[in-house]
Amino acid sequence: MNLADRLAQCRSPFIVKDKTSGVLSHLNGAAEYASRVALCPIRYVLSDELTRLCTALAYSKGSRTVACADLLHVPAETVWVEWCEAPWRAELEQYGFGLDAQDCARSGRRGAFIQSSTDGRRGLVRTFWSDKDNALDVLASSMEAYFDFDTPVDEDPRPMDDELRPTVSVSDGKNGDLLHQCLRFRYERTWDVYYRQARCSLASKQAIARHALGTIAIDIPVLLAFLMLLGIRSGVSLHPTDYTRLNRSRAKAGRPVLLDHVEVRSPLPAPNHFAGASGANMAGRARRLHHVRGHLVRRGNTIFWRIPHLRGNSRVGSIRTRTVTWTVKDAGSLNEHARN
Q1: Do 306 and 190 share a domain, yes or no?
Q2: Same domain, 283 and 250
Q3: Would residue 151 be called left, alpha or beta, if left means φ above 0 and alpha means ψ between -120 and 50 degrees?
Q4: Which of 77, 186, 266, 284 would bridge with 49, disulfide CB 3.0–4.6 Å?
């Protein structure tokens, strides 16, 4: 079952109790988003191959710059995007992320609910996840991210809801960093109140904030990569589903109906395709087989994606191709699509 279907069935409020005072606090969680996801006009479910591609784009050098910010817009005022954790975690390992073995064993599904302005350039993101051991339990991030892709250089993005709360910025330490320029992270309103009133040390609050940030910040670059692919010609392959007949049977059996969604597939073949060849044709001294990170380059209306590949001793074969070229739709058609 997709994460959207599990989330749409959430009904239990998230309530915590202060052990010292006994005060109960109702915090905004998955149940508050059940109806929003059920009524969402667009729900995307990424294939495993596309999940890998978006993760590679997100964490390869050169892919997080503002050079492609003009390509980014959310296609509707509310959008749901989800993917399977296993290929996402496998790709993260390629880029040096330390992953907990127990978390990998529990890998379930991750998703994000995006609220956007009519032009798709400003918005708010909340993330959700579940693990395969407790498939019906859906967890929500206590932090949310807001974005403004038109943020001028040396200015801070403003939240779409104009609610000014303490924020955290994330940067990879490089110039032209899209995350730092156009996005900010903050606690969701009820969580912000709860942690401001919590009686614990500053060090504890900082540790909690770092943990909370880790539940959402790592997903945002993947979402940005997906939005970029939506904005370019032949970026992804869309396959709408129709559960009308199946849901009639489920309703008769007293089971919850499933939500229609759009399956999104990668336009690229599986990575690291090889053609039969020996290492004899390699010039100079053969190097050990190793993984090379991909990188993204934009020249005008053309984007070149140097895909992650293996380099070195090629007893297993030689790389067939390492470069993918995408042609960007002209600015006029992008703006027209955003207005529609």
Answers
A1: no
A2: no
A3: beta
A4: 266
- Spatial CA neighbour of 307 closest among 291, 324, 290, 319: 324
Which residue has better confidence, 58 or 324? 58
Tokens of 79: 């959008």
Note the pLDDT of residue 249.
Answer: 94
CA distance 194 to 27: 8
CA–CA gap between residue 294 and residue 301 (Å, rounded): 20
Question: What's the rounded Cα separation, in Å, for the pair 166 and 171?
Answer: 17
Instruction: Give the tens place of pLDDT for each residue, 298-319.
Output: 666 666 666 665 566 555 455 5
Domain end among 232, 248, 265: 265
Residue 340 CA, chain-centre distance (Å), reads 24
Based on the domain organization, do 39 and 162 belong to the same domain?
yes
User: What does the alpha-carbon distance between residue 21 and residue 9 come to, in Å, rounded to a whole number?
Assistant: 32
In terms of residue numbers, what domain contains 244? Answer: 3-265
Give me the phi and psi of 193, to 5 degrees please.
-65, -45
Instruction: Give the start-end residues of each E strand in 59-182.
Output: 78-84, 109-116, 122-130, 139-140, 143-148
Pairing of strands 78-84, 42-46: parallel
Question: Do 240 and 322 share a domain, yes or no?
Answer: no
> Quick one: which H or E segment has residue 317?
none
Rounded Cα–Cα distance for residues 227 and 73 (Å): 7
pLDDT digits over 274-296, tens only? 333 333 343 444 555 555 656 66
How far is 180 from 134, CA to CA, in rounded Å? 35
Give residue 269's identity as a one-letter amino acid code.
Answer: P
Distance, CA of 311 to CA of 290 (rounded, Å):
5
* C-beta neighbour count of 136 within 10 angstroms: 9
pLDDT digits (tens, 9 = 90+) for 232-272: 766 788 999 999 999 999 999 999 999 999 999 987 655 44
* Closest-CA residue to 291 (of 93, 44, 106): 93
Question: Are 321 and 182 within one domain?
Answer: no
Q: Do 261 and 280 sit in the same domain of this protein?
A: no
Q: Which of 265, 288, 309 is the last residue of a domain?
A: 265
Same-domain pairing of 325 and 193: no
**Total structural domains in the chain?**
2
